[in-house]
Amino acid sequence: MANDDHIPEHLREYFGPDKVAFFGAGGSPAQLAPPESPARRQGEAAVADALGKVGTDAPRVGERPVTRPPKPALKRRMRMMSERALMEDSMRRLGRVPPHCESGALWRRGFVPLWRVLPWALRRRMLTIASGVKGWTRTG
Description:
The protein has 6 helices and no strands. The protein is mainly alpha-helical and 140 residues long. It folds into 2 domains: 1-69, no CATH class; 74-130, no CATH class. It is 49% helix and 0% strand.
């Protein structure tokens, strides 16, 4: 690729074989992919695409998505936050290092103490209902 005439001279040094990878698997020198291999064609296509976008406002590979991912439903968010609060509480009680982030005060001071005083039978029933796994029965 370093000898490709389509690459401007001031950029050509960045596309030589020594700029791709210094070492391959096991510390051996990296080998260039054979010219007929799919990896070589994909690499050359990626370089050509990147060079074609130089100086334009075209989207680049790895840029943030055009649309934001949807927020989880309220039920899912509450479950995630309660699981996180319970995990942080167990880290505080059992771990040597406290958690490096904290849930909201409502979850820390309201939900966690309430959860800890519930009898196990009620907790198990709540977990079964909220788990999303339906139709399983206990065997044995």
